[in-house]
Amino acid sequence: MAYRFTASRVGSGDVVFPDEIIIDYDEQILVYRKPSLRGYQSTTIRFAAIGSVSVSNGLMFRDVIIETNGGKTIRAKGFSIFDAQRIAKLLS
Asked: Which contiguous run of DSSP H or E holds residue 85?
């Protein structure tokens, strides 16, 4: 089962290309996508490599911060409060 979350165009700071997070339980991976004019930049992380997941506080939108065991940090910006909490819960 896979879950797809797309950031708000308003809250992400990028009206044209909002961030995406895909959580795939079948393959045990998380995919972070940052769309652009020429496709998208994609980062794939296995669940076993996720060190921590946190959610930043904002007035209307939240950022999801994912840190790996290898020291890489991904900051996906502009998710709704509900989506950000759901992402953190699914990855915990």
From this structure: helix 81-91
Contacts of 39 (CB under 8 A, 6+ apart): none
Residues 63 and 56: their CA atoms lie apart, in Å, by 5
pLDDT tens string, the chain, 92 residues long: the values are 899 999 987 755 666 788 999 999 999 999 999 888 888 889 999 999 999 999 998 888 999 999 999 899 999 999 999 999 999 999 98
The reported pTM is 0.87
The per-residue b/e assignment along 8-36, b for 16 or more CB within 10 angstroms, e otherwise, is beebbebeeebbbbbbeeeeebbbbbbbe
